[in-house]
Amino acid sequence: MTVRCEVRGDGIAVITLDRPERHNAIDLETAERLGATWDRLRYDDSVRVAVLTGAGDAAFCTGLDRSAGIPQPASPYSVDDPLLRIGPKSRDLWKPVIAAVNGMACGGAFYLLAECEFLIAAEHATFFDPHTTYGMVSAYESIGMAQRMPYGEVARMALMGTAERLGARRAHDVGLVSQVVPVGHDLLTAALDAATEIAGHPTEAVQGTVRALWAARELSRAHALSSAASLIALGNAPAETQRARFAGRGRGFRIR
Questions:
Q1: Which of 24, 87, 117, 239 is the 20 to 30 A CA-CA neighbour of 94?
Q2: Choice among 74-83, 158-167, 224-233 with the minimum mean pLDDT
Q3: Which InterPro entries does this entry report, sorted A to Z (predicted)?
Q4: In total, how many domains does the chain have?
Q5: Best CA proximity match to 174, nearest among 156, 192, 188, 200
């Protein structure tokens, strides 16, 4: 089971990415299970709030699992992106989702984080985008983060690649993270505390508020997303170049 979903009796569902041996990277099975989970929660009236997290302490999610051998079409003008439908909003779920970020969150993890209402992070959490280092365009990821962070911070994270990671405290300073959970405190408990408060409010008011917030950002996001696939097709390095750069990824990094 690559995704676990626990529906509690208090109106909260806890969804856990459960591939800790792969840093909770997403393969096709995980992508399908995530989509199916959001679909199920959409119609489960007993669930009013969801908490999304990753198994283990090392990583929340490290994006697409490059070892999964996900096929791509031969045409350079076509890109099959298995992550486009893994987020709750892409599945038309308008119940609030809180992300509890433990450890690394990078690359394709931003498809998920961009569609959560707010993020709570463990103090050791880090955020980074490796795409440019590997000769890949950061399109969907950067568009999602540009809705949550100042332009300069998104640009720096995307362009620095694997050379730099955004620490939890800095992520809080720039508005990506709403709460940092100190060492020695339980991250999931902090997320559940917030979820419990929200679950106690009238359902219609909560979901209407979520939809209103997304309406405020959706127009510019839709325009940006319409260009993403073509930018990826035009800007990505050839597959063999990406593999070569990925194989040499062991360089150090700094945290800010």
A1: 24
A2: 74-83
A3: ClpP/crotonase-like_dom_sf, Enoyl-CoA_hydra/iso
A4: 1
A5: 156
Backbone angles phi, psi at 44, to 5 degrees: -95, 100
In a domain, 230, yes or no: yes
In a domain, 193, yes or no: no
Its domain, for residue 39, covers 1-72+80-184+201-256
- How many CB atoms are located within 10 Å of the residue 16 CB? 20
C-alpha 44/C-alpha 86 separation (Å) is: 18
* The pair of three-digit structure tokens given for residue 242, joined into one six-digit string: 């990406």
Model pTM? 0.89
Q: What tokens were used for 213?
A: 């917030």
Distance CA 171, CA 234 (A): 31
Query: CB under 8 Å to 148, separation ≥6 — which residues?
Result: 113, 114, 175, 176
For residue 44, give the DSSP letter.
Answer: -
Burial class, 97, CB count within 10 angstroms (exposed 0-12 / middle 13-18 / buried 19+): buried
Residue 22 falls within a domain, yes or no?
yes
Asked if residue 2 has pLDDT above 60, the reply is yes
For residue 171, is pLDDT > 70?
yes
Q: 210 or 243: which carries more pLDDT confidence?
A: 210
Backbone angles phi, psi at 122, to 5 degrees: -70, 155
Task: Name residues whose C-beta falls within 8 Å of residue 111's C-beta, 6 or more positions apart in sequence.
Answer: 83, 84, 86, 87, 140, 141, 144
Note whether residue 194 is domain-resident: no
Scan for tokens 């003008």, then name that residue.
77
Question: Pairing between strand 12-17 and 3-7?
Answer: antiparallel
| Burial of 106 from C-beta contacts in 10 A (0-12 / 13-18 / 19+) | buried
What's the pLDDT at 236? Answer: 73
Which position has the higher pLDDT, 71 or 1?
A: 1
**Per-residue pLDDT at 157:** 97
